[in-house]
Amino acid sequence: MQILAPHPFGSDINTDQLVEMFSHKTLWEDRYRQLIQLAKQLPALPEELKQQQLELRGCENRVWLGYQLMDNGTLHFYGDSEGRIVKGILAILLTQIEGKTPVEVIALDPLKLFEQLGIHQQLSASRSQGLESLVSAIKKAAESCQ
């Protein structure tokens, strides 16, 4: 099966590397810049994949999230956002969930990593709500593939 919208998150960039990247960032501004750097590494979705059914509601910026159940039983997630911070948040989520089975994705608590990286507590209320909308959409996608 051909992968739609490949990206480096979860393969070239893993959670241990994210923890290392953010461990040296003590100021919110530095974490903010790191999120923007991650956003730049997430390739833009081709326009044909920015379908209305992939667009999430409840986010500050427009966000698209799609997925594929691969032949080996793992999930490939892909997405994009018009906002740099939201796109960086999406990149962190993709790092955690890429290549996992539906059962593994459902069992995962992605917010723990955001707390560990020192990001979750710094997000505005609307971005926190957007993060929770993304996590909810990811869990629903995984549940639909069981």
From TrEMBL:
Catalytic residues as annotated in Swiss-Prot or TrEMBL: C59
Limits of the Fe-S metabolism associated domain: 20-140
Pfam family, one: SufE
Protein family (similarity comment): Belongs to the SufE family.
NCBIfam families from the UniProt entry: FeS_syn_CsdE (TIGR03391)
PANTHER family in the cross-refs: SUFE-LIKE PROTEIN 2, CHLOROPLASTIC, SULFUR ACCEPTOR PROTEIN CSDE
Protein's name according to its UniProt entry: Cysteine desulfurase sulfur acceptor subunit CsdE
Organism: Budvicia aquatica
